[in-house]
Design brief:
four-stranded mixed sheet, 12 helices
């Protein structure tokens, strides 16, 4: 528990979303790319390991990482591709494997085998890719032979990553690709990030609302600066919000398209003073209690866990709406939040796809992380205000922010 408000300048690690997208585009590009300020964590290790199995050479001993592009000439993997706990890696590598000239098996952890893949696999089959899968989940075996191009439909209602995976490989097709979304995508803003990275590596992609048009022609190498992770920034931002403190987040440009920056405006509604600057974000928490909010977070689901903790310190009932996609993350985050926020003394209830939170009398507790990095990072914030909060299995934060607890201590 802190005896004084948080006061700090923090540069979160590189964005996981941008790092993994840049790894794919640079791997498929012509020439050597340099990725500056990338995320070094378990999820990006899984992506690099998988690309390496497909014959991509990545020099990652220093910053920048150097990626020797293959121009799409991938090799047939000798071993299966292990995505571990990384949903982004699993979905992107499944699509990339379609470009390999031979069979590639993609697998992952027990939890990853439960997470949705069916819609992506159906879309790849619609593009003529031969896939062996028994259940619409990992493991799957892709019999790749390249992509012809043409029109493909995909259902993105459970994850926008299905669309991103198709978009990332589309420039490698022999003809232009039209990716048609059959429903409104969850977390649509991530598709803007995908297009941003593709464009930086020379691809031509056009957003027409319910569909994307991608020209053939591949990617070219680039020097790519990876901005700091807005999903990670959520935790020091909420730390300042609940302690009447002040934090400056560096490394996120004012033009950033990262979806979880939506949290800044919500914290402003709760009474924080916030500002977007050319190279960062500044937030000062209020001296009074935070205001309760009723907000739709379908477009920024990764920020929900930090926001849920802020709601524990709000004045009244808060409702976080349309976050059913949290059921399909590293844990069932809806149930996990309901359970653990209640364990520490709050009143949390799942109502359909919403989470309703009322503050209560907080108490010491050993909280479960469910092997989920964002649960660990969010619940640790409670300990800034309530002594006796113990995080079970804190090491799971290495998935996206290995140094998180050092940063939290330094606040």
């Amino acid at each position: 528990m802190r005896s004084a408000p948080v006061s700090a300048v923090v540069r979160p690690p590189g964005s996981k979303s941008f790092t993994n997208r840049a790894l794919v585009t640079s791997a498929l590009a012509r020439g050597v790319s340099r990725l500056h300020d990338p995320l070094e964590a378990d999820d990006t290790k899984a992506m690099r390991r998988g690309l390496g199995t497909l014959g991509v050479l990545i020099e990652d001993n220093d910053d920048p990482w150097l990626v020797q592009g293959t121009a799409g000439a991938l090799t047939v993997p000798v071993d299966s591709i292990d995505a571990g706990e990384a949903g982004t890696a699993a979905r992107f590598l499944t699509a990339v494997a379609a470009l390999s000239p031979g069979p590639a098996t993609i697998d992952g952890s027990a939890r990853m085998r439960e997470r949705p893949m069916r819609e992506l696999l159906a879309a790849l089959k619609g593009m003529g890719v031969s896939i062996e899968d028994a259940s619409g989940h990992l493991p799957v075996t892709i019999h790749g032979h390249g992509l012809e191009g043409g029109r493909v439909e995909v259902d993105p209602s459970r994850s926008s990553q299905f669309v991103s995976a198709l978009l990332l490989i589309a420039p490698m097709a022999r003809d232009k690709v039209e990716v048609v979304m059959t429903t409104e995508p969850v977390s649509r803003s991530y598709l803007t990030s995908t297009m941003e990275v593709m464009t930086a590596f020379g691809a031509t992609v056009e957003d027409r609302g319910d569909r994307f048009l991608v020209a053939a022609g591949g990617y070219r190498a680039a020097h790519y600066e990876i901005e700091a992770d807005a999903s990670a920034a959520a935790y020091p931002l909420v730390a300042a919000a609940i302690t009447a403190g002040r934090v400056r987040i560096e490394g996120i440009p004012g033009s950033s398209t990262q979806p979880d920056l939506a949290l800044i405006e919500i914290l402003a509604l709760m009474g924080c003073e916030v500002g977007r600057e050319a190279s960062g974000v500044v937030l000062a928490g209020p001296t009074a209690r935070l205001a309760a909010v009723d907000v739709d977070m379908s477009g920024a689901p990764d920020a929900v866990l930090a926001l849920a903790v802020a709601c524990l310190f709000a004045d009244g009932e808060s409702r976080i709406r349309n976050i059913g996609s949290l059921r399909h993350k590293e844990s069932d985050r809806l149930v996990a939040l309901e359970t653990e926020l209640t364990r520490v003394g709050g009143d949390a209830r799942v109502v359909g796809d919403d989470l309703v939170i009322r503050p209560g009398v907080l108490r010491p507790a050993i909280v479960n992380t469910y092997h989920d990095h964002r649960m660990a990072m969010a619940l640790a914030l409670v300990g800034l205000r309530q002594p006796g909060i113990v995080i079970d299995e804190p090491g799971c934060v290495t998935k996206t922010w290995p140094g998180y607890f050092d940063v939290l201590a330094a606040l």
